[in-house]
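Please go through the sequence line and token line underneath and see whether the fold suits the sequence. See right below:
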Amino acid sequence: MDLNEVLSQLETDNEEEIEKLLQQYNQENSCTFTFDTKEEKLRSKLCQSLITVLGKQMQRRCQKTCLETLRILSRDKRVLAPVATREGMLVLAGLARLQLTEEGGDTQSEEDEDEQERVVVVEALKCLCNVMYNSAAAQQVSVDVQLASSLCRSLRTPRAQNHEVGLFTLRLLFLLSALRPDVRGSLRREWHAVRLLTEVMEHTLGVRWVGPYEVARLDPQALPLPAEDNERAMESLKALFNLTLSNTDGEEDDHQFRLIAAILRHLLMLKTESEEKTEEVHSHAVNLLNNLPVSSLDVLINVPVHGGLEKYNGKNMDAIQRLLDFMEKRIDKQGSNYKEGLTPVLSLLTEGSRHNREIRRYIKAQVLPPLKDVKIRPEVGTAIRNKLVRLMTHVDMGVKQTAAEFLFVLCKESVDNLLKYTGYGNAAGLLVARGLLAGGRGETQYSDDEDSDTEEYKTAKPFINPITGHFEEPMPNPIEEMTEEQKEYEAQKLVSMFDKLSRQNVIRPMGVRPDGTLAPLEETLCELPEDTSGSDSD
């Protein structure tokens, strides 16, 4: 379509012709996300003309069509300068019925709104989302005109109960809090956005409180969470994640955080209309749980146990089991991004296990049960332990460290216990990073309860290779039948090979300092205790 023709028509007051031309443009470009750079100036002028037209009094149908065109154009960040102005943002905010301080009062009551009005509101919100995402200038204008406070006010009105209005208001709040970290503090302190979003979650999920931090138990026959509710829940979780990235663990916040933890526990027990969407919303729940103070995680297990549900030492472990299932599903997911998809739940379970004895003992029983069959390497197999041990040698450093730390905490940060379940070869990376190559424990203090080894493990223990972590049949000694001269020749040959590799910087001989950290071999030899360095030993 000729954009010059569209621009010429916008200069007239013929709404019918404007609407007709723009509808044709919208139809042709509804799925366009990459635009021709040759028409960049024309599209920028079209943005300016649309803002001018939208600032006038016109019929709702024509407003809707103009906004649809602007939404399509706003996918191109290069043409947004006319929209990302104070005038442009105020026009869009006015159409979205966001009461900005510079606009004055909102004269139309919510009861007077009809369906066409709501459609215009939704289209304006969609435009604001695109413009906010693609323009730093628009983000600054949003701060200047206090858009954050307007979004909070809007979420408190009955209008936000409409699915699309509520959804895109939440999405706009998420984008603003994500792209402008400086706004988060005022959202928390002045507009109490954490409490507001918690209430939105309660309403969306149909939470019914039956005790302190206890949500009414789900009916086993309950229908899955509707798709629309699931969408709003995810936008709320994303915004809450931004607002809780840096929190003050003060007494006044503790109650709010525990309420959020209780709602998230309820959410973890819910299913949606598809397995994929269930996993997605649970992923957002995990991310938010990572932001909460670890002291609030006891809310996940301090609820009554009903029927045959998971119970461990009187604690309800349903939510913990859901997190374990989620973790294993993420490990099994082919081609997934472990760093984004797996490390958050591993970090959450690690911190929960580090600070809560019941959580640690339950997870240990599921992940690292007493060893019986030690004939197979720890990284071989389909059990959750095998999968986690394989991650200890993953190519991604973050994934490798997170998985190793998780198993280390389950072993109460005991090097000996960790090696029993993983083998030295798999655990070497963690031990080097923590300076524990010489053995010992981490810094966290744990309870004195001891793990008991199975009879099978005790019998096989003398024959377990500490490097591979599995039982090996005694191997014949390859030098048993050699003469002393042959042994010395082979030894000298090996030394020469190592020396050559070392001189060529292919390898660098390393040793372990007395504190358990790695260092070049020559340095560790210099640090030997005096009583051994001066002995007659070869």
Confidence is low (pLDDT under 50) at residues 102-107, 532-538. Residues 33 and 75 are 6 Å apart (CA to CA). The longest strand covers residues 209-211.
